[in-house]
Amino acid sequence: MKRRIVVFFCFIALIVGLAAGFVLRGLVSEQQPSSHTGIATAEPSASQQDAEESADQKGRMVITAIKAIRAISEQDFETLSTFVDPEEGVTFTPYSTVDPTSNLTFSADELADAEEDETAYVWGLSSSDSSPIKLTIPEYFDSYVWDADYWGVAELGIDTVLHSGNSLENVSDAYPGCHFVDFYLPATDDTDRDWSSLKLVFQQSGSEWYLVGIIHSEWTA
């Protein structure tokens, strides 16, 4: 089953990375003179080349996100740490609204050693009773990261929040210049209360995409 899902996600990633390029190349070819005329065809414009490169980079980000979500699903902290930004680390947000004053940030090394770290950190306040969310890193992952099977996600958004509740969605403001992939699980009943999503936020450095934020979202009272 997992192998099928990996193929599905990779297919999505390839579509994201290549479709725009194919469309643009198609438009260029329509505008170019026929090769039978003996006239040299024009090179794509700079803006078209930039758009193709941007689409390709987005595809690479999605593939990185898929690899990261797989590591998360297995609580493979060592592998997950290899995606973390080596300078900024990765920040965890238990509910949709990113809050720099309460959200915790861990370095790649700290995340890699999560299994051995028995410290109960305060990650913020619970939406149900405003009590402190005091958990170890693995416990936090169980409750606010891998709280649902995002590996079998039905919908995937790129730089798009697919669903929101009554909490402020401020990922773009909190991470200027970054991009994100939203793994969204729709509600299973008419109350629209059991939906959830996991946003992985990435920052580009050269040709690499580094994980800088993990945002968990769900319906809150």
Detail the topology: elements first, then pairings.
Blueprint: H1 2-31, H2 46-73, H3 77-81, E1 90-93, E2 104-106, H4 108-112, E3 121-125, E4 132-135, H5 137-144, E5 155-158, H6 171-174, E6 179-185, E7 196-205, E8 208-218
Parallel strand pairs: 1-8
Antiparallel strand pairs: 1-2, 3-4, 5-6, 6-7, 7-8
Q: Can you walk me through this structure?
A:
By secondary structure, this protein is α+β, with helices and mostly antiparallel strands. It has six helices and eight strands. It has helices at residues 2-31, 46-73, 77-81, 108-112, 137-144, 171-174, and strands at residues 90-93, 104-106, 121-125, 132-135, 155-158, 179-185, 196-205, 208-218. The strands form two sheets. It has a six-stranded mixed β-sheet. The chain has a two-stranded antiparallel ribbon with strand order 3-4. A hairpin with a 6-residue loop joins strand 3 (121-125) and strand 4. Helix 1 runs antiparallel to helix 2. It is globular, with a radius of gyration of 20 Å. Residues 1-11 and 13-41 have low confidence and may be disordered.
- Write the element-wise H/E pattern from the N-terminal end onward: HHHEEHEEHEHEEE
Ends: how far apart? Answer: 35 Å
What about the largest sheet? 6 strands, mixed
Radius of gyration: 20 Å
Give the amount of beta strand, in percent. Answer: 15-25%
Spatial shape: globular
Tally of helical segments: 6
- Return residue spans where pLDDT drops below 50 for at least 5 consecutive residues: 1-11, 13-41
Arithmetic mean of pLDDT: 82
Helix content, binned percent: 25-40%
Total strand segments: 8
Helix/strand structural class: alpha+beta
- Read across the widest sheet, the strand sequence of neighbours is 2-1-8-7-6-5
